[in-house]
Every structure is written in structure tokens, then in C-alpha cells.
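Would you mind writing out a protein's amino acid sequence and the numbers that encode its backbone to help me picture the idea?
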Amino acid sequence: MSLKLPMKFRELVDIELSDVEQPDTVWLANAACALTEDACGWSGWILDGVFKTKGSGGGAENSAATNLPSPDDQICPRCGKALFRTGVDLKFSTADDQSRTFELSAYETEPIEFIDATVKGK
């Protein structure tokens, strides 16, 4: 069995680290789903910003920083309501050594097969 993806997206998913613009600074914000009486009460970390800096410093405070695409919509992942940002933020900088030193959560993988959507029956 394989995961069938449209051929038109191959250049988006069949990539290596060197193929994408790499951030050097990431900001996380702590948030809670607590704005309304019927909010679900979820709390956790959300992306606040992903940056590539062109000069020294790093992060959003650097006027030469480029804000890279990342989901930062501040919507609760559990119920879809707006999140309240608590004011607790953390700044992370990328390390020179990008080798993984831990196992991610267990999940199954399947080989990817790219299909031509213009061909019927595939």
C-alpha cells in the first residue's frame, strides 16, 4: 500500500532540508482556550513566528528578519475557538547540529506514490 499524492505537489513534498528556506529563530507563545464560557479549556504552545534573519541579532526584533510561512492563526486545535495568548513566550534558535537525538511519537509511514490526476481511474 502507498500514499497517493497528486503529481502537481511533488516539488512541495519530495524535498530535502536544503530545498527549503530554513529559519534560524522560532518564537512560541503559550495560549489557552478560555475566552468564552463554552471554551474547551485547552492550553499549550502555539507558533508565534518563524524567522530567517539576514543580519545579527535574530528574531522579530531584527528589522532585517524575514517572516517565513507558518501556521499562526491562534485557533484552538481541540474546538476551533479563538485562543487567548497568556504573555508567556519562548525564543528558540536553530542549532548547527540538526541530527535527531530523540524518537518522535510513534506513527506509521507508507511509501509515497505520485499520481497524474489527469489520468482517469488512478
